[in-house]
Amino acid sequence: MMKKPVWIDSDAGIDDAMALILATKFDSIDIVGVSAVAGNAELTQTFRNVRNILALAGRADIKVYPGAEQPWIIPLETAPDAHGKDGLGGAVIPESDAPAETEHAWDKLYEAACAYPQELTVVAVGPLTNIANTIIKYPKFASLVKEIAIMGGAIIGGNRTPAAEFNILADPHAAQCIFKSGIPVVMFPIDVTHQMRLTKADLEEIGSCGKPWSRPLQEANAYIMPLYERNGHGSVVFMHDSCPVMWLQYPELFEGKLAGVNVETRSGPALGKTISDLYVYADQLPLKNVTIMLKGDTDGMAVKVKELLRS
Predict the structure, then answer these.
(1) Which of 83, 104, 194, 240 is catalytic?
(2) Is residue 240 among the annotated active site residues?
(3) 4-310, what's its fold?
(4) Residue numbers in the chain where pLDDT is lower than 50
(5) Residue extents of the structural domains in the chain
């Protein structure tokens, strides 16, 4: 079976850690590269986290490239309230001994797209700065990449502000570049990722599996769970970034619709809002290149995630 070439771009927070480990478990994909971007924490920390997580999963051979330290225009705002200062809620993960790559993420991502024309799927689970940099520096990239699957956006309401989700708000101008690029986008907004959750019992089950990642994942998610409890979600954690990763191998877990998407890039209370024509009768946005996932199999996702993390 031909494996699907995949590039993963991550800001290596708590939910990124689970997503990255899950991605290494799939026999249907070939992870041809991973890049780090500033978001949940500063780039020096996210670059370190991505390297360490992959080593924890036994895949220190996957090369990790440093990307953007800052958003395009607005100042960087990290998320220590959700992910801790280190991005992983203080979970202890051994340091990777793999050589540290120094080439820019966008240069290596373009090389990967050239190596796999019309085959490469980019999975972006952080701010979209690295991907937008690739589009701007290499105009051919948009015609080479097969699709971009992103965790980001909010059709109804945000999680960082009443209007915006964190990954899009972190660099709205870069996000608008992706949505206007013409590249097919598969978007996993919080409308669907909030349906994909693990309970405290699920995390205890994962923590007792005896794998190298078992305890770190349990510890990291225990750090963020009180935030969800304070926000009225109960004793659960959301598997935000695992959604586009799981879609690679289990697309039947999700249902979506094709629509147009714009991002509000002007300052104000709506900054970072992903505006779609999903719920209007007339086509309001001329470019319709975004499949917006809206429904997910909550129980099916949890079962498969636990199975994969036990293996």
Answers:
(1) 240
(2) yes
(3) Inosine-uridine Nucleoside N-ribohydrolase; Chain A (3.90.245)
(4) none
(5) 4-310
